[in-house]
Amino acid sequence: MYDIEYLHEATSVEDAVQVLARDSQARVIAGGTDLLVKNRDGKFPAAHLVSIHELHDELDGVTLADDGTVEIGPITWFHHVTTSPVIQATVPTLGDACDTPGGPQLRVSGTIGGNVCNAATSADTASTLYAYGALLDVRSVRGERTIPIEEWYAGPGKSTLAQDELLVRIRIPKDHYEGFTGHYFKYGKRRALEIATLGCCCLVKLSADKTLVDDIRLAFGVAGPTPLRALKAEEAVRGLPLAKAVEAIGALAQADTHPRDSWRASKAFRLQLIGEMSRRSLVAAARKGGATL
Amino acid sequence: MMDMRILTCTVNGKKVQVGYDPRESLLDTLRNRLHLTSVKRGCEVGECGACTVLVDGVATDTCLYLTQWAQGKDILTVEGLAAPDGTLDPVQQAFVDEFAVQCGFCIPGLIMSTEEIVRTGRTYSRDELRKLLSGHLCRCTGYQDVMNAVEKAVNWCVEHGYSDQAGARA
């Protein structure tokens, strides 16, 4: 039995945002795999919940817009992101990242939107969505606005989403993914049911002869209080021969991130992971793009 | 305090109506109101897989699934597997044949995930099966015989066209 004082099963997005506007204590529940665990642990007791679990028509599934933008409904299960033909054809690295949280049962309850809204630095989709420069469309009774993922994270477990707002769409425009190949690397002590000690996503666009780094995006989870991009490291290897970039990327990424000590891992170990995972992720991403390394 | 609500759904092939408290998980409702005690209360945080049942054919942790969400759904637990004359279903039989059970607590969940796998009608490598079952923990660490049983069940079901039958029953 959960500590729930009020539970409303929303019948539409409009209905959900109306209730969120009326009740300042109300929070959104989608898959429940984070929220119910926290509730059971005594966090936010006597919860007021607006469930969007059944809003499949409005909030579920992945589509490709005419202009090539990938549009992901926030209550799409991790598993359905992974198996979506649109995802596999456009942003396959996001599909790979969605195959890593928890175990198979969690991935058919947990949603990609919930992963974003919980705003944990360790969220498996965070670094990949960051690398792809996702746009987050949110709605309230006051209207709709778009928050770029760079402006989404406000601190550990905190986002700039207001209490009365609902995430209604995750978008990845075509120029954010076209020509890139990528790799998501999750480091944990087990291969299942594990929270990332460190997560790293590298997207790379190679020159036509596959020897130069034309463009790169390098994003991390658990390398700071929020997911982040190593912008200085990216800038330093952009235009370099691939082999040089692979050699340099680890130290550059270490200098551009801010991991800390926690019970899961020390800062020193996380820095070692950042160096090693950056290099390996760049190599894997470049190989998928046709490079011989 | 919230009023009781009524859940209408299908459980093990039968239409069911049952009152529930909106604070309940499907695990609570299946065990405490419908007395389906094959559904085990384990970690209650979605890590051990002991409470796994099929919801509309999908292996789901019921500890993190509000009963509210089961409205209109088709739910299958281990109690719904054996034939009316007591003949075990092929997955259950494979677990018996391979001595895949030690204390038994994790087994109903493992069987339901295996039921999901055999309904796909294809075979899998050992590594694929390990990943498909990675949402289950066995404290006895009896994984080897479980893997043997799962592999046997999956191969048997493919050879005998079992997924089509299961589909026809559902």
Calculate Rg of chain A over CA atoms: 19 Å
Spatial order of the strands in the main sheet of chain B?
A: 2-1-5-3-4
Total discrete domains of chain A: 3
The name of the CATH topology of the largest domain in chain B is: DNA polymerase, domain 1
CATH architecture of the largest domain in chain A: 2-Layer Sandwich
Question: Distance between the terminal alpha carbons of chain A, to the nearest Å?
Answer: 54 Å
Number of strands of chain A: 14
**Largest interface pair:** A-B, 28 and 32 residues
Low-confidence stretches of chain B: none
CATH class of the largest domain in chain A: Alpha Beta
> Quick one: how many beta strands of chain B?
5
The strands making up the biggest β-sheet of chain A line up spatially as 4-5-10-6-7
Count of all domains of chain B? 2
SSE string of chain A: EHEHEHEEHHHHHEEEEEHEEEEHHH
Distance between the termini of chain B: 37 Å
Q: In which range does the helix fraction of chain B lie?
A: 25-40%
Summarize the amount of helix of chain A as a percent range.
25-40%
**Which class of the largest domain in chain B in CATH terms?**
Mainly Alpha
Helix vs. strand class of chain B: alpha+beta
Largest sheet of chain B: 5 strands, mixed
Query: Treating each run of at least 4 consecutive H or I residues as one helix, how many helices of chain B?
Result: 6
What keywords describe this structure?
heterodimer, A: 293 residues, alpha+beta, Uridine Diphospho-n-acetylenolpyruvylglucosamine Reductase, domain 2, Uridine Diphospho-n-acetylenolpyruvylglucosamine Reductase, domain 3, Enolase-like, domain 1, 3 domains, four-stranded antiparallel sheet, 14 strands, 25% strand, globular, B: 170 residues, 2 domains, five-stranded mixed sheet
Question: Could you walk me through the main structural features you see in this protein, from its secondary elements to its overall organization?
Answer:
- The complex is a heterodimer of chains A (293) and B (170).
- Helices cover 33% and strands 25% of the residues of chain A.
- With 293 residues, chain A is an alpha+beta fold.
- Chain A folds into three domains: 4-51, 2-Layer Sandwich (Uridine Diphospho-n-acetylenolpyruvylglucosamine Reductase, domain 2), CATH 3.30.43; 56-175, Uridine Diphospho-n-acetylenolpyruvylglucosamine Reductase, domain 3 (2-Layer Sandwich); 179-288, 2-Layer Sandwich (Enolase-like, domain 1).
- Chain A has a five-stranded antiparallel β-sheet with strand order 4-5-10-6-7.
- In chain A, β4 (62-64) and β5 form a beta hairpin.
- Chain A is globular.
- In chain A, 52% of the residues are buried.
- Chain B is of the alpha+beta class and 170 residues long.
- Chain B has two domains: 5-80, Beta-grasp domain (Ubiquitin-like (UB roll)), CATH 3.10.20.30; 90-169, Orthogonal Bundle (DNA polymerase, domain 1), CATH 1.10.150.
- In chain B, strands 2-1-5-3-4 form a five-stranded mixed β-sheet, sandwiched between helices.
- In chain B, β1 and β2 form a beta hairpin.
- The longest helix of chain B has 17 residues, at 143-159.
- In chain B, 43% of the residues are buried.
- The interface between A and B is medium-sized, with 28 and 32 residues.
